[in-house]
Amino acid sequence: MKDSRILSSFQELAHAAGARPIAEMPEHLRARVQVFDTCQVGTVLRAVLFVQAIVAVAALFGAHSFVAWVTQMAIYTGAALPAVLAWLLCVCGLKRQLGLLPIPGQWAAAIAFGALAGLYGCGLLVWMGLADPSPWLASAASGALVSAVLVAALMWRSKARGPAGATARLAELQARIRPHFLFNTLNSAIALVREEPAKAENLLEDLSELFRHALADPKEAVPLWQELELAEHYLAIEGVRFGERLRVEWSVDETASKAKLPPLILQPLVENAVKHGVEPSATGAVVRISTQRRGSVVVIKVTNTVPAGSGKPGNGLALDNVRQRLTLLHDVQGRFQSALVNGVFQVRLEIPV
Tell me: the pLDDT tens digits for 101-123? Predict the structure, then answer.
């Protein structure tokens, strides 16, 4: 609980410093600043744990007993922890400006901030009378070195996101626009043209919306309400095909509609619910989609009843795809769970607001 309050306070300070979520920035700027998006909880945790590990090892030098080691580590932590948090906050607040610099300039600026953070930590020790003599040069050098390692890790993570996102999107498109789904939809429209032309028109409009989203320019994040609309179009198409066998229940919290999540991430979950719940059952199934805001977290659930003896389970590629994309966007703040309990399969997503 204490760690959660510290991280929440850090995010509030970052917001007050002018930092905006990457997803709210213009498209042309988003890719360049995501390297320095140190406002995320996962980034803060990793940086703090990394620096604390360095502190623990450094305290071993000259420590002749366990008590001496703990004492020395506490002194070093008193300087290192505020320094690394100051560096993260500074980089987070200036991420847009840093993103506009050339690569050498980004490295130079980040390392300079690290040196200043090291001097800040040393100043705290001097002020408390815990450093005599004062290791100003060593502190600046240590801060610069640690910041260089952190920047390297951030840049590596940024480069890894591009191919992973592209691969995930390609797999998603292949899963969504499957030939048999397209043919079934067109056949349904043809069958309705003469008897129910208005219904056929609506069906083709829903199909057009699916293709428009699938072929649109890729974005890092979209609002939840857009994903719900896309799922509604898909279920309307399948509703023509399955009729009363497909029973859909919605429970949508309007206060959660602006939460950000990866594009085209909800529709595969709904498609899975239809494929494994409705399609193999002669009596059909109930598909439930619910959203709920709980404080700073939005909970999304997609559930479907599973008929007994419905055949072999799927290979889980769609679920793994969703899990990976959610992690890429929200890191440890995004959670994904799936389970089959008492004949009901549920997928649960948690995303920060």
Answer: 888 888 898 899 999 998 998 89
